[in-house]
Amino acid sequence: MSITRISIISAALVLGAATAFADPKPKNAKITDSQTVANFYAGTSRIWTGCKGGVYFGGGFEATAYCNKQGPAVAVGKWSVKKGVICSNLTWFWKEGSGVGSKPGDRPNCIAHVTDAEGNIWRRWNDDTDWWRLQPIKDDTKAKKGNAFKGKISRMRRKLNV
User: Which residues contact 56 (CB under 8 A, 6 or more apart)?
Assistant: First the structure.
């Protein structure tokens, strides 16, 4: 896997955001309770259309991901929530010749959350200036309950022995 491929995967992580309209940070918004954020993401997959994959926020704060932009790659790591910000820190693995290539993510992928005066939760990816209203999982086309990539991730992990 080339540095270009890693950059594309990193971009997919950051840009795999919502399809709704963005807004500035809501007035009088307060940091969303970390437990609320953790409960929303735990046990769900976030779909990355740009790389035909996504990330799964599993139990025990384990994160796994799959991307098939330029060939299959799998990532393993951890996710955490602190002060309303969820971050995933992943190391990517792929088949490289007769061996396995790997590269830690350039930096953790983080999403900040705030709650407006009406109780709506908004989120913002990494250093993006736009805020996006959080949709319930059933209404979010880029979120699925459960591990949407379980089979692909399991097969790649076995194949690569990671």
Answer: 44, 45, 63, 64, 65, 147, 148, 149, 150, 153
pTM, rounded to two decimals: 0.81
Tokens matching residue 86: 């969820």
Whole-number Cα distances in Å, 74 to 23, 124, 135: 33, 25, 27
Q: Which residue has the tokens 């540095």?
A: 3
- Residue among 97, 99, 96, 54 at smallest CA distance from 75: 54
State the Cα–Cα distance between residues 155 and 162, nearest whole angstrom: 10
Closest CA to 107 of 84, 126, 81, 129: 126
Please check the confidence at residue 15 and state whether its pLDDT lies above 70: no
- List Cβ neighbours of 146 (8 Å cut-off, separation of 6 or more): 43, 44, 45
Give phi and psi for 56, each to the nearest 5. -115, 130
